[in-house]
Amino acid sequence: MPIETPVPSRAALIDHLIQTRIAGQVATPRENNLSHYRKLANGDRHYWLGLDLGDRWTDEQDVLAVMAERVGVVDDPVHRVGQDTIDPELTVDGLERMAARLHKAALDQQRVLFATGHPGGLLDVHRATAAALRAAGCEIVVIPSGLTADEGSVWQFADVAVLERGATLWHTHSPAPMAAILDALAAEGRPLPDLVVADHGWAGCAAQRGLDAVGYADCNDPALFLGEAEGTLQVAVPLDDHVRDPRHYDPMVAYLLHTAGLLGQ
């Protein structure tokens, strides 16, 4: 078992998500959410997370409607400031959809690439998932060496691709590091991943390139949920992607791996 954490029931996991503010009343304020929805709708590519949204999401209210449906933010457009929410039921629903795709990867012994732009919060979530898939017989893709993007180095730590700058793992939503990996794999004549498990621009870039991709995103990062709504991204799991103690994610990962049939491999 990649993490020594008991597997919670669905109800117990929902309680845990609320208590730790991974879901429920999350730390991201309403005004920040709406600002990001508006910037995405206005065509700011920084908020597209590597996806090509074209002119399909130019109305902030359309973006809000999708986020209310898929994330559980407050659906009232008059609510402009204060508390916003992630529905923990939707978080667990997303985990169960992701588990189904991980189960398929294990059955088919697929090549899987892991990456994160949120190493402070999600690195160990991805590491534990990679360890479980490796134990199940999957090939965890090793990225080419010497890659650079966004004035940093793209390298792998505990089977997870990250961006490094100045000996620090970097928080980034940019799609450029994933693009560097995929371009280098193709240039070396190596097969592309069958599945990418990531977050933010790393997941969006992979999905836009036509790869099977699943990922995590916060309530102020609407692009992946729009990508899921359009069928470009297979799964987007809503959660607060940087809670104070990353160990709070351990019960969530235990539930994910148990649902995928990956514990005890």
Automatic annotation (TrEMBL):
UniProt xrefs under InterPro entries: Phosphatase_SCO2771 (IPR031423)
- Output this protein's name: Phosphatase
Q: Which organism is it from?
A: Streptomyces antimicrobicus
Identify the domain of life.
Bacteria
